[in-house]
Design brief:
By secondary structure, the chain is of the alpha/beta class. The chain has helices at residues 65-77, 139-145, 161-174, 189-201, 249-253, 276-282, and strands at residues 3-4, 10-11, 23-29, 37-41, 52-53, 56-58, 80-93, 98-110, 121-124, 150-155, 179-183, 209-212, 217-219, 222-226, 242-248, 263-267, 286-292, 308-312. It has two domains: 16-145, Nucleoside Triphosphate Pyrophosphohydrolase (Alpha-Beta Complex); 150-324, TIM Barrel (Alpha-Beta Barrel).
């Protein structure tokens, strides 16, 4: 519809006010055994020159997202990716365009990486990138890749919070946990936030973050928010923290339960741990098993078919996870 200006002339609608369909972009992560991923620096003649990104690009007509990711990876770096699995997807708004970025990770890859388009390449630790600046559309992807494989679970304190925080930190160090999950038993948000701060400042030999329902915790390269995750939630934006949920096994198996969940923590009785592989196959986000340390050898957690484990304290009340679901 057209409007008339003050002079009576016909004024076309402001194109900037009409959101254009997002450009479909696919990218492929290749990872070395040490966890470092391959990133490329954008050339001077490209938009956002000098920024670092995961190799990828726009879809061609008739192409699937995974096909585009494989093609772009090979064209840019000479690397051939195989066994692609969905890793993350979100919408990002650049000043002049909107993209829908779908990121895959290659289970296997081959070839010697080289800058086929005369761009610089580097192997980067997503937990502490040694290059920069990072393209804004990629920072959420690095947060997903920086998730720890072992998480220590802490229930709410029974007495002295300071002593409790020190004990939780010591336990996290003992099992080399990269995060502490606070199962708070329905505490009010201010108390929950105070406990998170205690856990974050307690001395610990292992760098870590704290995960808690209703509290977004972040460091330089990581942000995560746990809440009730409803299906068909709005599409994720690159500015959003990762979305986490703690679910019972039956909830996780329900159709659509893991839609939009970047980090799913599944409480898994020993007798049902065989179902975790099925859940992992259907989930696009990371899947953690919430387990009791009596029955898990957490050095071999990948035999469960999951990305990581959350280890509860022996004899603690693990049922407090229900406040999340």
């Amino acid at each position: 519809m057209f409007a008339r200006g003050r002079t009576g002339t016909v004024v076309p609608p402001n194109k900037r006010s009409i959101p254009a369909p997002p450009i479909q972009v696919a990218a492929c992560v290749v990872r070395r055994d040490d966890g470092h991923i391959l990133m490329a620096r954008r050339r001077p003649e490209q938009t956002s020159p000098g920024f670092w990104e995961i190799p990828g690009g726009k879809l061609e007509p008739g192409e699937r997202l995974d096909q585009a990711a494989i093609r772009e990876l090979k064209e840019e770096t000479g690397v051939i990716g195989q066994g692609l699995k969905p890793l993350l997807n979100h919408v990002h708004d650049f000043p002049t365009r909107r993209i829908h970025l779908s990121v895959f990770i290659a289970e296997n890859w081959g070839g010697v990486p080289r800058g086929c388009e005369n761009q610089e390449l580097a192997w980067v630790d997503p937990r502490d990138p040694s290059v920069g600046p990072i393209l804004a559309s990629n920072t959420r992807v690095l947060a997903r890749l920086a998730l720890p494989s072992v998480v220590s679970v802490a229930s709410r304190p029974a007495s002295d919070p300071a002593q409790w925080a020190r004990s939780c930190a010591a336990r996290a160090s003992a099992c080399c946990a990269g995060a502490i999950l606070l199962l708070d038993g329905g505490l009010p948000v201010p108390q929950r936030q105070a406990l998170v701060r205690r856990l974050e400042t307690a001395e610990c030999r292992t760098p870590r973050t704290v995960w808690a329902c209703g509290v977004t915790t972040a460091n330089k390269n990581f942000a995560i928010e746990f809440s009730h995750m409803a299906a068909n939630r709005r599409p994720a934006s690159s500015k959003d923290p990762l979305r986490g949920a703690v679910l019972s096994l039956s909830q996780a198996l329900a159709p659509g339960a893991l839609d939009g969940v970047d980090v799913a923590i599944i409480r898994t009785p020993n007798s049902d741990k065989g179902l975790l592989s099925d859940i992992r196959m259907r989930a696009s986000g990371a899947v953690y098993a919430l387990v009791e340390d009596e029955w898990i050898d957490f050095t071999n957690f990948k035999t469960l078919g999951v990305d990581g484990i959350c280890i509860t304290e022996r004899h603690s009340n693990a049922n407090t996870h229900e406040v999340f679901v």
